[in-house]
Amino acid sequence: MTFIYLVVFGFAATAVLGLITSWIDRKVTARVQYRVGPPFLQPFIDLVKLLGKETVIPSGASRGVFLSAPLLGLTGVIVVSTILWVNQFFAEGFAGDWIVIIYLLAIPSLSLIIAGFASGNPLASLGASREMKLVIAYELPFILALLVPVISANSIRISGILEAQTTGIFAGSISGILAIIVAILCVQAKLAFVPFDIPEAETEIVEGPLVEYSGPGLAIFKLMKNMLFFVLPFFLIILFFGGLRLDGINLLWTILEYVGIVAIITVIRNTNPRVRIDQAVRFFWGPMTLIAAVAVILALNGL
Amino acid sequence: MGKTIIPIGPYHPLQEEPEFFTLTVEGETVVDIDMRMGYNHRGIEKLSEGMVFENSTFVVERICGICSTSHPYAYTRAVEDVFPMEVSMRAKYIRTIIAEGERIHSHLLWLGLAGHFLGYNTVYMWAWKLREEILDVMEILSGNRNNYAMFKPGGVRRDIRAEDIPICLKKIDSIVPTLIMLKKAVLDDPVLHARLKGVGVLSYQDAIDFSALGPTSRASGVARDVRKDSPYGAYQEMDWNMIVTQNGDVFDKAVVRILETVESINITKYCLENLPDGEIDANIKDVPVGEGIGHIEAPRGETFHYVKSDGTNRPVRHKVRAPTFMNLPTYKATIVGQTISDATIILAAIDPCYCCTERVAVKDDRGRMLYNGQDLVRLSREKTEKMRQRMGGK
């Protein structure tokens, strides 16, 4: 049973939905920018094409770490999405799975840092050190914001949080709205999208940690990012909008909520320039942490 | 903290052209910058000296794809400077229209690229979409989207038809609302302010010391513009403002370029509406012995051409100095002390055109430079000495 959960839900469903999400993102971006945009299957074609390409290992790289870093990141995302799916449809959670998810969500960033330092390229290690600073910057407000549903539901289990929202979703309360604003901006940074694409910064450090990757390694990293692009909005929907509901009119609402979150992320990405790393750290530790803390206090008072 | 070398180039997404910058960094801070050229050298000056005066216009047009009219304009002015002659008013107006159209599309191109370098791809696409309309106008007027081939010593090669003018005016008018919107979106964006204000400041004194040109100097408060200081073409005929700002940072350079685009649109419209009648070509038969200089305000600053004639149908010496040659050294003042994230946008902020600036570099088979500046001076002296001996030791 565990195997089916992992392969079917954790990997296959998330991968397909993630690639579709990335298509939505690319298409919306293209329309905003007076372009036509890619056809629906383009993300899948890109992935398959990359998988068939040669893997080049740079001579200065440490071979084993360089090759295992993408797998590490992918594993992290698969486990997170499995826990989320299982909670959503089979209500088979365990005490403290919220903590485990937060912990595992740091693994993709960690794998990028490892990949950057293992590449033995100055641009890659620069990207890795930027990624490290960015992780330190956004984790605090991210965890504070995600604490709000836990406080409101009085449960640290995902299934408990879902159950508490059967009467009313947390996004309807003041603390929920504040928390979701912070969470979406942190998701932006977790996905390394503009304005927080500082670790990759194509025109500065040429994709940063990924600069030396080619072929399957690069494909797995891209897939990891696309899956994360599905998993993070999905996580937010579970925490703040009462999860996916597939019955009748609620299905439409679920799709709207999901596409809405993706669209907000895409619009932010297309209407901002990249900030500097020091500005990002100041932004997350200053206003974002403050708003998240206010949300936590409001939630503690039942608002 | 240890020093690391971060290479930018020879092939890097930041640059459209092959150039090699080595940034010496401590952590994220740039402590020194060096650059190497010579990847793009084509020997245009020498090529030009082997051509007849008319054909040289086409060669210099190909120095740069973006300021493709600046070089012919400066060159034709240099040839016309060899002997006293007057270009007809209609030709001057047509030249002004082409030169200003080029300024509009060049500044829009820069705006788009600057957005792209900041990760702001929406500005990139929007600016280039606007630029497309201007390229259409240029195609209607000259038959080409770029490399217009409109100039010849003594006038212009192709007349503007009266029935094309309303179409062009309509197309130019159509981009104005979007340009104003884009201008507001760029100039009022708080994130852009945070990112660009106070970054890469070129002080007034540095701008003077490095002899910076064009928008790079005007953003530092140096009110220098060939179109105002030594008027040519039809620029005296109408009122227009020289845009000068005081801060000298990247943001001000963007402001200068965007506002100049608006001014250029007004100049182009005025010229199209008030195009005088008359001949377009003075039909120069031959160029007498003499030398001439021509300088015009290209989108990036003053382009300077020197032509020497010995009475034959070819220039014996043709010297080109593109504005980027003067603007490149300002990196020493603007980049040192900034972070790598800022260094990339500062590198782009002078709107560099490396193929205009390209100089020869002599290397051995291991890629080491064989000659530095002092070697070249020594070689030049030896050559002069040899020539002197050959001419009888005078």
Question: Which helices and strands appear, and what pairs or packs with what?
Answer:
The complex is a heterodimer of chains A (303) and B (394).
Chain A: H1 2-32, H2 42-51, H3 63-90, H4 97-118, H5 122-153, H6 158-164, H7 174-190, H8 202-205, H9 215-240, H10 249-270, H11 277-300
Helix pairs in contact in A: 1-3, 1-9, 1-10, 2-9, 3-4, 3-9, 4-5, 5-6, 5-7, 5-11, 7-9, 7-10, 7-11, 9-10
Chain B: E1 3-8, E2 20-26, E3 29-36, H1 44-49, H2 53-61, H3 70-82, H4 89-117, H5 121-142, E4 151-152, E5 155-156, H6 164-187, H7 190-196, H8 204-209, H9 214-218, H10 226-229, H11 250-273, E6 290-298, E7 301-309, E8 315-321, H12 323-327, H13 331-334, H14 340-349, H15 354-357, H16 373-390
Antiparallel strand pairs in B: 1-2, 2-3, 4-5, 6-7, 7-8
Helix pairs in contact in B: 2-3, 4-5, 4-11, 4-14, 5-6, 6-11
Description:
The complex is a heterodimer of chains A (303) and B (394). Helix content of chain A is 74%, strand content 0%. Chain A is an all-alpha fold and 303 residues long. Chain A has one domain (2-300). The radius of gyration of chain A is 19 Å and the shape is globular. The termini of chain A are far apart. Chain B is α+β, with helices and mostly antiparallel strands. A 3-stranded antiparallel sheet of chain B has the order 1-2-3, with no helix packed on it. In chain B, strands 6-7-8 form a 3-stranded antiparallel sheet. In chain B, strands 4-5 form a two-stranded antiparallel sheet. In chain B, helix 4 (89-117) runs antiparallel to helix 14. The longest helix of chain B has 29 residues, at 89-117. The chains are: A mainly alpha (303), B alpha+beta (394). Chain A binds chain B through residues 29, 32-35, 122-123, 126, 194-195, 197-198, 201-206, 270-279, and chain B through 4-7, 12-14, 28, 115-126, 129, 189, 191-192, 194-195, 339-342, 344.
